[in-house]
């Protein structure tokens, strides 16, 4: 979902030389990013160390033809096009252009000042070309797709030097269920400042489009509840309805105990659905959604560990559709039907850490690359994720704890609380409270303690063998 906080347009002139000097150092391989905003510094890191984008690139590459998206995405593109057309005169008057791109960064349409569009054409800032961050480096459209908030990229903050004469602001519209980007709206100006109203206009356009997606998602949730009720009337198996992201819309009494969610309580609104905190189940649900979206007749099964169960439980997935669009799956417990889902290597304990990717964090004016064993635990605090590490407390580059949990799931990390993910290998003691509640004493100094929520306690006991 789009973060609707105010889109600030940072002052340009006092920062220009400092940012350009930092850009020169970073391109040479140094990690000193003094004077650069954190979101831009993290983007530079992705461009240099993850994507390997050539900073001397002078034009965007042609977009790939292989695009896979749902009908709802086409509706979003049309809505954003309408929003862009409604302000095209205002944007043209300040010498700007407005663009709409899809989730891959492929520009779909462009409007605005004729002279500016001519300059834009030289850099391939036009339909058919790709402005994802991995293709073209730090820019308004590509970087907005990588973050959960609106972004402004000004001058030398662009990764490619050829784009340093541009100032742009972008905001991504995200699927309200999966949180994956659907499209991005962007305003760009050549050698001039963005208007003060640009931030408010972008946020308003994205908010209105997001509202349409929320309404559609609520309808999809209601369809899942109806399918659940129908299944319950025809089968004696325990049943739950999960959306494509693996969140629970409704579960019967037995399923609710296994999943650690409320019983028989519908949650059609995506804002109030429950996260079962079972990485295996969530991964299986996402795999099932992907398979069913390409084959409506698909049915699959697997086994997962659930809350309060020491042995794996067989489950089956059966897709649910609304007007031909996949809205989720019915999960039957104790049933094995259909295609067997692929089994990933389990990530218990410290297994998999040798091959795990680096964790990116920031500290003041430097990027810090960490190996999983160096991280004791991660904590969500507002819109940020903080890491307790051997090098102190650092802000993670990953903006959401759920995403970090998925990235570290195979490296011995476990979600123990809605605000905490811990490295099981760094747990030194387990403390039990008067009412049986658990707290983990971590080896990160000063006997740091992490609370364990009641519904995550069985998984913690199982993983730690207590």
The gist of it:
A hairpin with a 5-residue loop joins strand 19 (427-432) and strand 20 (438-442). Helix content is 32%, strand content 26%.
Question: How are the SSEs ordered, and which strands pair?
Answer:
Elements: H1 13-28, H2 38-51, H3 71-86, H4 88-93, E1 96-102, E2 107-112, H5 114-122, H6 133-136, H7 140-146, E3 151-154, E4 166-174, E5 181-190, H8 198-234, E6 238-242, E7 248-251, H9 253-259, H10 279-294, E8 300-304, E9 313-322, E10 325-333, E11 339-340, E12 359-363, E13 366-370, E14 375-381, E15 384-389, E16 392-396, H11 401-408, E17 413-417, E18 420-423, E19 427-432, E20 438-442, E21 449-452, H12 457-464
Parallel strand pairs: 8-11
Antiparallel strand pairs: 1-2, 1-5, 3-4, 4-5, 6-7, 6-10, 8-9, 9-10, 12-13, 12-16, 14-15, 14-18, 15-16, 17-18, 19-20, 20-21
Enumerate how many helices there are, as a single number: 12
Structural class: alpha+beta
Read across the widest sheet, the strand sequence of neighbours is 13-12-16-15-14-18-17
Straight-line distance between termini: 39 Å
Mean pLDDT, rounded to whole units? 85
Low-confidence stretches: 1-6, 9-14, 345-355
- Helicity, as a percent range: 25-40%
CA radius of gyration is 24 Å
| Approximate shape | globular
How would you sum up the major sheet? Answer: 7 strands, antiparallel
- Got a strand count? 21
Strand content: 25-35%
Structure description:
It is a single chain. This protein is of the alpha+beta class and 466 residues long. It contains 12 helices and 21 strands. Strand 17 (413-417) and strand 18 form a beta hairpin.
